[in-house]
Structure formats: C-alpha cells, structure tokens
Amino acid sequence: PGAFDPPAGFDPAERVLSGIASAPHRYEVSVRLQGTAEYVRSRLPAGIAIVEELPSEGAPDPGPGPWCRVGMRVERLDWLPAVLASLDRPFVIERPGELRELVARFAARLTESARRR
Q1: Closest Cα partner for 96 from 66, 67, 75?
Q2: Quick one: what percent of the chain has pLDDT higher than 90?
Q3: Other C-beta atoms within 10 Å of 21: how many?
Q4: For 32, what's the count of Cα atoms within 13 Å in the CB-facing half-sphere?
Q5: C-alpha–C-alpha distance, residues 1 and 5, integer Å
Q6: Cβ atoms within 10 A of the Cβ of 73, count?
Q7: How far is residue 48's CA from residue 91's CA, in Å, rounded to a whole number?
Q8: Per residue in 53-106, pLDDT tens?
Q9: What is the CA radius of gyration of the chain?
Q10: At 71, is the secondary structure helix, strand, or coil?
Q11: Please, what is the end-to-end C-alpha distance for the chain in angstroms?
Q12: Computed from CA positions of residues 106, 109, 115, 117, in that sequence, does the dihedral angle turn out positive or negative?
C-alpha cells in the first residue's frame, strides 16, 4: 500500500455529503431562496441539499440581500413545505410543479388554523 497527499482544499466529508445529496431519487427539487448560501447551509445539511450562491442577476426580483439556488433529490415531497417555511425567507419553486401545489395547500392549512378561535 502506498500513501498520497490529498489535493489542496479537499474536504472528504463534504465530498461524501454532496454525493449523498446528488444521489438519484424520485424528485429533483430546485428552489431559489433569498439568503446567503451560508445561512441555508446552516439549516439544510449538505447530505440533503446542494446550495449555490446566485449572482445578483439570478434573483427573481430586486429584493434586498443575496439569493441562492437549493437543489435536493428526494423520494417524497410532503415534508418540504414545512422545511421551506421554517427557513423564513422568500423563495421561488423552480421544480417540480407538484411542490407548488403542496406549498399552497400547506399555506392554506396554516391560514385556516390561524383564523380559528
């Protein structure tokens, strides 16, 4: 057996986690989210999300602050509306379309619950 020096800047844990996040699953999710990549990474582990900072021209509107793209590959979408809401940031669902409907239904349930007395 031999030995070698790892390439400069190589992070084995990050490599494994990004491999897990990009493994094939039923749904490929893409969401643009207002916030820094650092903020999103602090709330979505590298094992489930790949986060990339977007240039200012990638923002859906001229709102304040940076935007990033969050990519996830998941078997089920039903848990994502609550996760997206918990990030407490504006977001735009790029795909899949089914996620938009789930988020709309989740928002309606929250609104209905908030109005109950």
Answers
A1: 75
A2: 65
A3: 20
A4: 14
A5: 14
A6: 17
A7: 18
A8: 998 765 666 567 899 999 999 999 999 999 999 999 999 999 999 999 999 999
A9: 17
A10: strand
A11: 70
A12: negative
Tokens representing residue 80 in the block: 């994502």
Place of tokens 């996620």: 99
Position 60, amino acid: P
Positive or negative torsion for Cα 9, 33, 71, 39? positive
Amino acid (one-letter) located at 31: V
> SS3 of 85, please?
helix
Q: Which sequence spans correspond to the domains of the chain?
A: 13-115
Q: Which residue has the tokens 């602050």?
A: 65
**What does the block give as tokens for 23?**
């493994």
